[in-house]
N-glycosylase/DNA lyase
Amino acid sequence: LINHKSHYPTTTHTHNINHHTPKHPYIPQTPLTHRWKECSPGIWIGVLCDRVWKIWQTETDLHFQVYPSWNAQDGTKTEDVPVRGTEGECINTATDTSYSENQLGRRKRKQSSTKEINVNDGISSTKISKPSKHKIRFLDKLTEDKDSSVKSAEFGTQVKEEITCQDSEQTLEDMKALAPDCILRDYFQLDVNLSNLYKHWSSRDANFRNVSSSFEGVRILRQDPVENLFSFICSSNNNISRISSMVEKLCENYGKMVAEVDGKYYYAFPPVTALVDDSVENELRNMGFGYRAKYINTTARMITRDHSVEWLHGLRKRNYEEAKSELMKLCGVGAKVADCVCLMSLDKTESVPVDTHVWQIAARHYIPKLQHSKSLTDKLYKEIGDHFRELWGPYAGWAHSVLFTADLKQFKSLLPVKVGSLPEILYVQADNCARENKN
DNA sequence: ACAGGACCTCGACA
DNA sequence: ATGTCGAGGTCCT
C-alpha cells in the first residue's frame, strides 16, 4: 500500500514516462498480494479473516467497510462497520439496514462511532475517535512507547517489541474474533513506524534515498501463513497474473464462500485440510497448476501429517534462521519462497527474498561483481541477503520491498528524475522499454 | 559449491 | 498460422 502523502505525479521531480495519469488523487496502488482488487477507483475489495472488506485511504486515514458473512452459523451478528464517506462516495452495502444517509449522501451509522484508522505511522495516531477494546491495547502501547520507539527507530532497531503487541499465537480462527479495526491494524502493521525507518534507510543508502522519495508508505502486510505459503508455492517460475488466477482457483474450489458483494461471490482461502486428499493433485493439474499441483498437495499433507497448522503459526515465535530452514523442508519451498513466507507472514522483518528482480537490483546498485554471475547460487543468495541486512538493519526485508516495488514495471513511471543521475535513469528507461516490449 | 536442465502453462512476440 | 521465449523458482543430477 503506497501512501501518496507527499509524492504523486504532479511534483517537479516526477517523470511521466507513460503519461500515466492518476485516476484518483489518493489511490492506494497495487497491493502486492493476490487477494485484493480495485473495484472502483481507489477502492479495494478483498477477503481477510474470512470476510469481505472494502478499503480505501485518504492522506491520513484508512477507511474500511466489512461485509457480513454469507451465513453466520453461530448467530452472532457480524460487525457492520460504518465508514466515513469520502467525497460523497456511495457504497452499496449488501445488508445496509443499520445505515442512514445524511443530506450529503454520506453514510452514517445510527447510534455509533465513526471508524477510521489513522495511518500516520502509529505513534502519531490520535484520530481514532472511539477505540474499541482491542484498539485500546494498541493505543496504550503506542502512547507508552512513544519516546522509546522514536529513539530506537532512529537507529533502525525498531522494536520487535512493537510487533509483539500483536499476539503472535493468533491463528486465523483467533483473528476472526477480533474487532475489525484491530484486524486491519494488525494486517497493515500500523504500529510499525514507517517514516522513521525510511529516514534510517535513507541515511545509510543513497540509492534508497533516491528511489524511496516516490514510494512512500510501502508496508509489509502481516498475512496469514497458510494463505501466504500456498500462494508463494504457486509463484515459482511463473508470472504475476497467472499466480493470482491460481490463488483464485484454490479459493473458489476449496475455500468456503464468505459473501456476495455487488453480485460477485467471494471465497476464503482454503484451510490446509482441504488440500490433503490424494485427488487434489490431479484436480489442480486439470486446472492448469502444472507441476505446482504436486507441491501444493504434498506440502498440505506434510503439514497435517508431520505437524499441524499451529506448528506453522508457531514459526512466528522461532528465530529467522530456524523458521526458514523449517519451511524449506516443505515440498516446493526453496530459499526464496521461504523468505517470502518469513517476511510476509512470520514477522521476520530481516528476511530478504532474493528473486531475479532483487538480484538485478543488487547487481546494478550494490554489488557490481554480480554483473558477471551467471546464476543465482545458494552462496550468492546468502551474500545478497546479508549485504542488505548489513546495510539496512533489522528491517531489511521492509526496505527491500520498497526497492522491489519501484522496480515493478507498472510503477516505473513514478520514479524520480534527477539531473545528477541522468545516465542511470536512462538505463532504467531502457530497461523499462525492454520489459514493455516483452510483455 | 556450482552449472545446467526439466518442469506446466500461457501470453507475447517473431 | 506456428514456433519460441520467459515469467517474482524448485529440484535433481
Observations:
- The longest strand of chain A covers residues 51-57.
- Residues 395 and 423 of chain A are 30 Å apart (CA to CA).
